[in-house]
Amino acid sequence: MMPNDFFSDLLSTISGRGRTLLGRASSQQRLTADDVVALCDALLSSRGEASGTAVARDVLDAYAQLDADGRGEVFAALAHRFGPDDDRLRKAAQRWESDPTDATATDLHFASEPRRQELFRRLNRAPGATRELVAMRADLLECLAERPALKVVDRDMVHLLASWFNRGFLVLRRIDWSTPAIILEKVIRYEAVHEIRGWADLRRRIDPADRRCYAFFHPALNDEPLIFVEVALTESIPQAIAPLLAEERVPTTAERARTAVFYSISNCQKGLAGITFGNFLIKQVVEELRREMPKLDTFVTLSPVPGFLSWLKSDDAPLADADRARIAGIDATADVAALDELRPTIEPLAAHYFLKAKNGRGQPIDPVARFHLGNGARLERIDWLGDVSAKGLQESAGLMVNYLYRLEDIEKNHEAFVNQGVVAASTAVRKMSKPEGRRMLDLRLS
Amino acid sequence: MMPNDFFSDLLSTISGRGRTLLGRASSQQRLTADDVVALCDALLSSRGEASGTAVARDVLDAYAQLDADGRGEVFAALAHRFGPDDDRLRKAAQRWESDPTDATATDLHFASEPRRQELFRRLNRAPGATRELVAMRADLLECLAERPALKVVDRDMVHLLASWFNRGFLVLRRIDWSTPAIILEKVIRYEAVHEIRGWADLRRRIDPADRRCYAFFHPALNDEPLIFVEVALTESIPQAIAPLLAEERVPTTAERARTAVFYSISNCQKGLAGITFGNFLIKQVVEELRREMPKLDTFVTLSPVPGFLSWLKSDDAPLADADRARIAGIDATADVAALDELRPTIEPLAAHYFLKAKNGRGQPIDPVARFHLGNGARLERIDWLGDVSAKGLQESAGLMVNYLYRLEDIEKNHEAFVNQGVVAASTAVRKMSKPEGRRMLDLRLS
Amino acid sequence: MMPNDFFSDLLSTISGRGRTLLGRASSQQRLTADDVVALCDALLSSRGEASGTAVARDVLDAYAQLDADGRGEVFAALAHRFGPDDDRLRKAAQRWESDPTDATATDLHFASEPRRQELFRRLNRAPGATRELVAMRADLLECLAERPALKVVDRDMVHLLASWFNRGFLVLRRIDWSTPAIILEKVIRYEAVHEIRGWADLRRRIDPADRRCYAFFHPALNDEPLIFVEVALTESIPQAIAPLLAEERVPTTAERARTAVFYSISNCQKGLAGITFGNFLIKQVVEELRREMPKLDTFVTLSPVPGFLSWLKSDDAPLADADRARIAGIDATADVAALDELRPTIEPLAAHYFLKAKNGRGQPIDPVARFHLGNGARLERIDWLGDVSAKGLQESAGLMVNYLYRLEDIEKNHEAFVNQGVVAASTAVRKMSKPEGRRMLDLRLS
Amino acid sequence: MMPNDFFSDLLSTISGRGRTLLGRASSQQRLTADDVVALCDALLSSRGEASGTAVARDVLDAYAQLDADGRGEVFAALAHRFGPDDDRLRKAAQRWESDPTDATATDLHFASEPRRQELFRRLNRAPGATRELVAMRADLLECLAERPALKVVDRDMVHLLASWFNRGFLVLRRIDWSTPAIILEKVIRYEAVHEIRGWADLRRRIDPADRRCYAFFHPALNDEPLIFVEVALTESIPQAIAPLLAEERVPTTAERARTAVFYSISNCQKGLAGITFGNFLIKQVVEELRREMPKLDTFVTLSPVPGFLSWLKSDDAPLADADRARIAGIDATADVAALDELRPTIEPLAAHYFLKAKNGRGQPIDPVARFHLGNGARLERIDWLGDVSAKGLQESAGLMVNYLYRLEDIEKNHEAFVNQGVVAASTAVRKMSKPEGRRMLDLRLS
Hints:
The structure is a homotetramer. In chain A, 52% of the residues lie in helices and 10% in strands. In chain A, strands 1-2-3-4-5 form a five-stranded mixed beta sheet, with helices on both faces. Chain A starts with a helix and ends with a helix. The first copy, chain A, has helices spanning 5-12, 17-26, 33-44, 46-50, 54-64, 68-81, 86-98, 102-111, 115-123, 129-144, 151-164, 181-190, 199-206, 242-245, 278-292, 308-313, 321-328, 336-340, 343-355, 367-374, 390-396, 410-420, 427-432, 435-445, and strands at 171-174, 211-217, 227-234, 259-267, 298-301, 303-304, 378-383, 400-404. By secondary structure, the first copy, chain A, is α+β, with helices and mostly antiparallel strands. Chains in contact: A-B, A-C, B-D, C-D.
C-alpha cells in the first residue's frame, strides 16, 4: 500500500550488482533464481538494514516472477546456503558440551538458528509481505513431494508462520450478508465439505436467522479468511445434511433453537497447512453463540466420514465373504433403496471403524474423527444415509456422524484420547458395535 | 474481550491440583509463585491443548497477582526449569556431530529450543495476552539487574517479541486532535525528549497545520503507541527548539514549508526495549510526508546531545587546563550570556566529540548520534544554544544538532558507519573541529 | 435497532382506546386502517410527545400490516382529515389580507401547513422510520393513479423527503468488490439500463481497474443505495455498448485512459421518485475522477434513446411514405444487416428527433435527453447500431448517443436549454439533420 | 471535504456580475452584504441549479467574511426580499377562499412559502453547509434582540433545522476516554451545569466504571455533540452534588448500582436553541442503561433550581417580614452553618415554589422544573444544601432537587402537567409545603 519511491530513488543510486539487478527489474527483464538468491544475500547484509523494507520488497517481487523451476532452485539455495553459521554453531556446541548450563544451552539454540529464519523475518517487513510468505509456503509444499531435502526449509517456515499466526493475533469475525463480496467469494471457493453452488446458495447459508458463519482473520491478511465454520441452529440434533441445506425449508425461530450444528469447517490457506486453527475456532464460536443465545444447550457437528467406504472395501474390514461383493458395488451412483438393505450389515462395521480400527499410529483411521476426538468431542451418533449425494455415497456409503462438544467432558475426553487412545462415544454407538446392541437398536427404531 | 465462561465451566469440573488452584483463584485467595509455575506446567501439558486459551488466561491472571519477589521466583523457574529438554538436546547434538547435515543441524536447533518459548507462545493465545507479555518483559528487565542468570529468559522473550512486533505487522497512524484521548494521554506521558506540559501543550504539537505526529501501533495493542515521532514543518533547518515549541508562534503555511524537522522521537513500551522501530518509523514518515507534500525537500532532525556535558567534564575531553574550571561550572542553572563566551572553546570540542571521541566499541559516545548515524543520516550542523532549558544546559551545555536524512546517501553513510566507523558529517562540522576551520567559521559568522 | 421495551412497558399501563389497540397488536390481531388513523391522532396529541418515539413505532408497525385497500384508506384519511387546521388558517388568511406584512404572510404559511406534515415528522422519529416512510411513499404512488385526490398527500411527502434527502446529507461511496454483498445485491436488482446478469457480470463492471461505480447513500438508510452510476475508463469516446461489457476484453490501463464514460445511471428507490440526485451524482463523480486521475479530459455518457423508435413509427416523424413501411417492421428481432441499410434514412431523422421534435411542454421528447441536456451536457454523437440487444432494437432501432459534459459549457448550455429550449449539440449532429450535411457525412465516412 | 475546483473552473468562465463577485473573492477583496444577497439571488435562479453546489459554497464563503453589521443586513434582506412570491400567494389565497378544498389549501401552503426556505435548502447542498447554517442561526439569534422584524427569518430557520435534526436522524454515542479529543474538548467547553475544570476532571466524569456520558450527534456534524448528559451510577438517590464529583471517591461496583443519576444535561449548539433533544436523550439513555445493566431500577436526576433564590427574594414569595431580611442576605458567599438555621423557613417555601408558584403562562417558574415535569418526571425530593458551591448558593440558597423518571407514570404525569398544570410530586414534597407536614418531616428527620 505504501509506495516505495523513497527507496526506489535510494537504490537507483547504488552501484554494483544491486544496481544491475534493479536495472533489470525496472527494464522488465526477467530475473533468475540466482538473482533472487543474490538479493537474499543483500537483505541479510548490512545494506539490508539501511534500506529498511526496500530490499525485502525487491526479493518478493523478483521471486514472484519465477516459474516453478526457479522457485525450486531458490528453495534449494535456502536449504543449503542459508542454514546456520557453521563456525558459530560448532563453537557453541563445544561450549555447551564442556559446560552444559542454561546459558550455553541457549547460546547453542541461537547459534543453530538457520539464517533463512532471519531472512524470512526480514522479508516479512515489507508491506503486504505476510500474504506473499504464505503463498511462498504453498509453493514450497508443491516442491516438497519431489525434493524431500527441502523439508528443512519447511520446518522453518512452519515455525515462523505458526508464531505469527498465533491464536492471540487472530480475530473472529462473523460472515454474513453484510460481509464484503471479496471475502464471500473466497468462502464460496474454499468451502471444502459441502460445495456452495453460487451466490444464492451462499446466501442461504449465511443470511437466514438460524444460520451462522464465523471465520478467523489475521490483521496482516485483511480480506482473507483463514478458516471458517458454518453453523445451523436447530431444535434437535440433525441426522442428514440435505434438509439443512434445502432451498425450501422453514427457518428455526430463535425461541425454539436449542442446538448449534457445526456442519462444515474449511481451511482456506494452503500455505498454512499444518498450523491448526480449527480447535480454537470451534471453541470460540461456542462461546459466541452461548453469549448471544443462552438457550442453546447442545453443540454438535454433522460430519462426513471421508475414509469409511475405502476402508470398508479394504481387507482391513472384518467383513463376511457374503457381504464383500455387495459392498464392493457401492459407489457414487449407488441406489439408495438397495443400499438401505445393507444397513444391518454396515452399521456395526461403522461402529467398528470408529471404535476399533486404527492407523499405524494407533489412532482412528478417519481424519475428521481424529480432529474432533482430539478436540475432546465424543462420537454421539451414526447417521445412516445422512448424505446421499454422489460425494457422500462415494466416500462413506452415505454415512454421516455427529460429534458432541460437551463442556464438562472436553478435557477428560481429550486426555483419554491423547494418552490412552480411548475414543469417547455414546452408549448407542458402543452398542451398535456389538451384535446384541445392533438388535436392540433395530427394535428401538422399528 | 471474550468471556471465558465456557472454560470456567469446563475447568470447574476438573480434579486435582488444577481444581485447587482455580478454587483459590475464585475465592480471591492469593496465589503463590509456585502456583503460577504449576499452571505453566499444565499449560505445556496435553491439558493445555484441550482447554484452548483458558489455562493461558489463568497463568496470566495468577501472575498478575504476584509481587516483585514472586515474579522473580517465576522468572527463576523459567530460567532453570523451562530450558530445553536435556535428553532430546543431547541426542540431537550427537547426531549432528556424527553427521553434520542440513537436517541434523535443523534438528539440533529445534531440540535446543527452551521450553519457555513454547510456553510464551501458548500464553499469547489468550485474549489480550500480548499486552501482558510486554508488561512481563518490563518486569523481567527490572529483575535482570540483580539476577543476571535471568538473561536466558530475556533472550527468549526478546526473540519472540521481535518476531511478533515485526515491522510488517506494525501500522503507522497519524496522531492528531481527532485521536482518542486514551492514546493522546499516553503521548503526553511517554514523551521523553521535550516534556509535554498538559493537553494545551499537546494540542500545539499535533493540531496546527504545520505539525505532524505519527506512531506505530500493533494490532494486538490497539490503544498503545509503540513509538512516536513529532514533526515540525518549517521553511529552513531550525537552530533551536524553543521557537518551534513557542506558544505564540505563526504557523508555517503549506506553500512555504520545505523542511520536515523530526524534533522528538520517543519509545513507549519498556517491555519492548531493544527491539528497534525508530529506523523504520523515520523512513516511513518521510515517505508519508513526501507523498502528502511534494514540495518538501529537506528531512532533518533537531536532536539533543545527551552525553556531551558529562564527556566535556571528563578526563576524556582534550581540554586546556585554563578552560577546565570554567566548564566544570556549567550546570542546569548556567547563565546563558556567560556560557556564550565559551562558544569558541566548546564548539571545536563538540565537533571532536562527534567525529573523534569513541566508546569502547569504537562508536560515537552519544547514543542519539549512534542511532541517527546508524540509520544513514549525516551530522549536518551543531546548534549553539539550541536548547537553553535546564535539561538542555545540564546535558549538553545548551548544544543541539541536526542530523540530515538525504535519500541518496543513506545507504552509503550507513555502510561506511557500520563497517569502518566513519561518521558522515557536513563540511561545516568537519571544519569546526580544526583550529583554522574554527577561525574561518568565526569570520563567516561575524 | 433500539428496543422499545421502555415504552412498551409504559404503554401497557395506559387506558382507553390506546390500550385496546396495543392489546390487539400484541395479541397478533390484525389492525384496521381505522386503528392506524386512531394511532396517528394519538401521535399528534400531547400523549405522542410524552411517549417519545413509541407511538410513532406503533403507527408504522400497524401500517405495515395493512393490505393495499387498508393503505388506501389511510392515505384518504391523511388527505381529508389531516389537512390544515381550518379555523387557524381562516384567521391567518384574514389577518394577512387586512395587513399583508412579512409577519402575517409567514403566519399564513405556518397556519396553512397540513397537519400530516407534522405527523410525518413525528413518524420519522422512530428508529428506522425513514426507510419505512420512503416505502410508504412508494405505496402512495401506487394508489395515486386511481385516487388523484391523494395528490395533496404526495406533495407533502415529496416536500419532506426532498428536504431530508437534501444533497448536503448524501454521502458518495464507491461501489467495488469490497462492498458488502447486501449492497451489491441491490445494484444487481436496481440496474435499469443494461441488465446485470448475476454476480460474475457485476464483478466485471465494478472490479477491473478501468471500471468505477459510485452511489449516493443517506445516513439513515445505510445499506440502500439511492442512485448509482457505472463508469468505464477508455481511450476515446465509445460508439457501442457491447464492447464495453464484453466478457473477454482487455482492460484499459490507467496510463492510456483519457475518457470517463457514464454508461448507466439508475435510481434505486421508487419512494423517492421525483427527487433528483442524478445531476449532483454525475458532477461529483467527475470531481472524484479528476482528482484521482488527472489525465482524464473527456467526460461523456453512452446513453440509450428510449423514446426513439416509437416516435419514429408515429405520425409525428417526418417520414417519406416509402420508408414508413420498412420502419414499421423494426422490432426487437430486427436483422441488423437489413437494418443497416436504413441508416441513411434513419440518422437524419434521429438528428431531427433530438433537435426539433418537442413534447407538449416544448422540451425534447426523449427523457434521457431531457435529463442530460437539462444538466448542461451537449449531444455529442449519434451512435448507429450502438446497442443491438433486443431491448436496444426495440426502443431505438439500435441507436445510442453520447452526451458530453464540458466544464466550461455546462452553465451556458443549461441556461439556454431552460430559458430558450436550445438543445446543445455538436456540429456533426447538427449537420446530420440537414440533407447536405447528411451527404457530407456520407462522404466523410466512406 | 470535496474540492470544488470543477466549479471554480466553471464559474471562472461566466460573465456578468457573477464573474465580478468571484473575481473579487479570489482577489481576497472583501465582499459586502449586497454581494452576498446578489449571490443568493443567483442561487435561487436557474444558474444555481446548473452549477450544482458551487454557488451555495460561494454564498457561504462570502457570508463568512461579513462582520456583524453585514450579517444583519443580509438577514434584513432575507426578511424583506425573500418572502413568498406575492402574486402567487394572492392568487392561491383567492382560489382557496372561493373554493376551500384540500387541494386549494395545500396550494395556498406552498404558495405562501417564503423563498428563503428554498434558499436555505439550496445552501445546505454544499459540502459542510449544515454546520454553517447552524452557525448562521446563532448569528441570527444575536441580531434578533435588536431587530424583532427578523423573527420571520428565524421561524423559517427553526422550521428547517427542526426537520433536519429530526430525532430519527440523530445518533446516540457514548462519550468515554476512547472518544476523540476534538469531541471531549467540546464537552469540557459546553458543560453548562457543573463546570468541568480541565482534562483530569473530565476523565473522572467519563472514565470510571460507575460513570456514563452520552451525546446525540448528527451525521452532518460528525465531531460536534448536540446535547450530552452525564450519569452517575449509585446505590441510592444522592442528596448532594459534591460527593458525586469528589476527586477521592470510591466507585460504585456494577453489582451494587441500582440508581442512574442524571446530574448534568447540556445543550451544545446555540444555533439549535429551541429545538429540543433533551426529552429524547434522557429516554434513550434510560433504555441503553436498562439493557446494559438490568439491575438498575431507579432513574433520577440531581438537578439545580436556578430560579429559586431570586424568587425567594422577590415580592412573590409568601415570606414573613421577619424572614425577609435574613433571606435578603443570602448570596454566593453565604455561611453554610448560618444558612442551615434557615432550613425550617426555606424548605416549605421551596415546596411552595415548585407546587404553587406559577409564571405568566401558569407553569412553574423554574425552567429546569418545567423541562423535567414536562417530560413526565415527578419531583421526588428537595435536597437541602445539595450544592454549596458559590453558584449553588447564589442561584438557590444551596438547594437541589431530584426528579424521578418512573416508566409507568411518565405519560400520566405529562398529560396532567400539560393539560391541567398539575405538578407531579412525591408525598414528602407535598407535605413539606404544609405546616403540619413540615413538622412531621422534622420529627421524622430528627
